[in-house]
Design goal:
Length: 139
Amino acid sequence: MSIQLAESDFQILGCFPVISQLRPHLEQDNFVEQVRHQMKEGYQLVFLEVEEQAVAVAGFRISNCLASGKFLYIDDLVVDELKRSHSYGKQLFQWLIEYARNHDCKHLSLDSGVQRFAAHRFYLMQRMSMTSHHFSMEL
């Protein structure tokens, strides 16, 4: 088992089968291009690999804002549905916390869909707090 940043196109593409479980609208044909575009804006992909296969994936970015200073924001966090309950999510989440600390972040945050009850239980077990409501609109 290892946790590493996806840097090569091969590694990025290897994350697709897992991340598409969270983001089913994504298309494999332009996934690498989309991730590379987001990387120019600070996005990073990290994956937990078991037997040369990604089983947990997180997309994140480091940013700053007036409300909370420097923070790590998790855009995507998913464990392969066939590999859950092996603590892979917890291990990847702990890696993200350490990464944030090592980059002088004061906060770690994420948004989670209101229907994702299992994810909410996981985040609460990781000692996260619900601190706001997220509002959005289609344009």
